[in-house]
Amino acid sequence: TKSNLGQFHFHGSRETFPLSAILAVTVDQRQATLLEATYLDPESTAQALRPSDVVQELMGMVFRVQHFFQMLSVVLIVATGLLVGLVIALSLRLRAGEMATMVKLGCSRHTVFWLQAGEMVILCMAGLLLAILLVLVAQLLLPQALEHWVVACMLHAIPLC
């Protein structure tokens, strides 16, 4: 700004500093198009960019990655649901003899059904509580562990990706 221009200084010779960017403000669309056309030469080492176009392209990429992970989550949820259904079906088949014995001992089929349903509810609730506990522990510990890992990678010049 004009107020701090006298305090601004360069270290080194100004002649050796590379020109890295120019902000061009045009009066109308025609001038903007002509300015962009000036830098369309494939042999040119400079390029003209519209910041709004660059940000839109970047955000489009972010949204595509987000959409990919959302679809991946749906696929994982379906696969997990099918796996749980398979485990339940195999468990019921495996315990069919035990349930037949309970019926022969005088237990009604209705009661056997509710016993099995109760077992499934108890197992699902225990799994849900364990998952919530693991998520809470991860939320507490993961940010610090990730920060330590990033710092260690930077100190040892290890690429993060």
Describe the structure.
The protein has 161 residues and is mainly α. The protein is built from four helices and no strands. It has helices at residues 29-38, 51-94, 96-104, 109-155. It is elongated and about 100 Å long. The chain starts with 28 loop residues before the first helix and ends in a 6-residue tail after the last helix. The model has no long low-confidence stretch (mean pLDDT 85).
Task: State the gist of this model.
With 161 residues, the chain is mainly α. It has helices at 29-38, 51-94, 96-104, 109-155. The model has no long low-confidence stretch (mean pLDDT 85).
Q: How much of the sequence is in beta strands?
A: under 5%
- Look at the helices and sheets and give the structural class: mainly alpha
Number of beta strands: 0
Percentage of residues assigned to helices: 55-70%
Largest sheet: none
Over all CA atoms, what is the radius of gyration?
Answer: 32 Å
Average pLDDT over all residues: 85
Shape descriptor:
elongated
Could you tell me how far the N terminus lies from the C terminus, measured between alpha carbons in angstroms? 40 Å
Order of helices and strands: HHHH
Pick out the low-confidence regions. Answer: none
Count of helical regions:
4
Keywords:
4 helices; mainly alpha; single chain; 161 residues
List the helices and strands and how they pair.
Blueprint: H1 29-38, H2 51-94, H3 96-104, H4 109-155
